[in-house]
Predict the 3D structure of the following.
Amino acid sequence: MTIATLTKPWEAMSYGFLDASAKRELRRKMLKAIAVPGCQMPYASREVPMARGWGTGGLQVTLTLLRPSSVVKVIDQGADDSVNAASIRSFLSKVSGARETWDTLEATIIQSRHRIPEERLRADQVLVLQVPNPEPLRPVEPNMSVARQMHADADYGRLWLILYEQIVRSGRVMQGAAYPSLVNGRHVMTPSPIPRWDVPKLHMAQHLTFLSAGREKRLYAVPPFTRVEPLVFSDVPFQVEDHAALTCHRSGLTGYFMNEIPQGGGGSQFELSDSNLGIKAIRQAEGAEARVGSTWYENGKMPQ
Amino acid sequence: MSLLTTIPVPDAFEARTNATFEALMWALSRPGTVQDLPAPGRTGIAEALLDRECRVFCDDPALADRIATFGAALVPLPLADHCFLTLDAGLDRLAQVAVGSALYPDTGATIVAEAGFGTGQRLRLTGPGIETFADLVLGGIAPGFWALRAALCHYPTGFDLFLICGAQVIGLPRSTTIEVL
């Protein structure tokens, strides 16, 4: 063994920012996460030039996957142009040479906070969701050693209790985001703070999804064609947000997840949460060339 | 992009390990599909995944020497988190492979083995990553292996399997149910 075999030529920076040992650890954990869908795998969560809680978990997964031929899309609450999304996207392309895009159809890796795009993801695409709190049991069990034992025992009764109490208090399930869902019939996961509208998009999907929490140092995955079933009572069916009849005031599209914009007079207007879908629809209406892919929801309904 | 920044280019090591991981990731995500590795053999997989944080068992002395250069500790089979095994004989030691626990499913081992694709035993796979079912023909694996796997792997505990044939890989995660046809 010589010094030369133990060292390598000087580099200003590792390709894709993370050093080789960080990537190897993430790779090992990502493979285990795929092997046990929905089960939270601990990982080291290295320092990245961004504060914990701002998407560092998703960032590390994306950095591990990146190669020069990758095309990255980053969204924050559905929008490509928010500060957080734009900064992450520009960082990713700077450290890897990957191309940036706003178009869901073009992207190979989609890193997202709080939304899954409305256009269907293909089998060759990877969705990376940034997760603030990966533990679905935290509201009912703050001790994470006990929560781990509950996952081991598949002891999820108290999650139904939360839903039951919401129905008793409010007449309906109030859980708006991070709706607890049973993955592959075994582990309950929190599908990051995506709205209920997006949960059915994970069920038996074509694409691979990674969910990664940098601050909490855990990652989990939903492989393609995996059952993701929101927890429900047999007599209270799962319902998505009542947005099917809303129309976007800018693009004119109806039947997708909308942002509500309060107006001065007390009313409100709505606009598409998936901003790039809206942009493409407006371009099409103006006669410019813009390809809109098939969407998960058709006429405000998710086909079964 | 400003003139002061340069576009980073991956070196050969980074490009190779990245492509190897991508093949392994899709192999495990879609059990039964054949993915292409950038280089033939098991060394590339060790290079992409293993370092000083890993404990490895390898029954091929030449490969074990190579893996030791990546920094992984060579340990007895029950302690290993990555096992490089031959599966065509000597199945009795398979019972020693770490399968993790319900508390820590991630401590189940990853097994990397050589196999022949396209000839031999016919298998039917169901589970995550497979829409309905997938049929697979595998050779070079002892006949009792699949029954032993079913007996040892009680989901979510179990071991994950990568089968290599030349520069091709098939992944069989513990979540896959395998029926011998």
Summary: The two ends of chain A are 61 Å apart (CA to CA). Helices of chain A lie at 3-6, 20-35, 56-65, 83-96, 144-152, 157-170, 275-285. The domain at 20-226 of chain A is CATH 3.40.50.11310 (Rossmann fold). The CA atoms of residues 207 and 278 of chain A lie 23 Å apart.
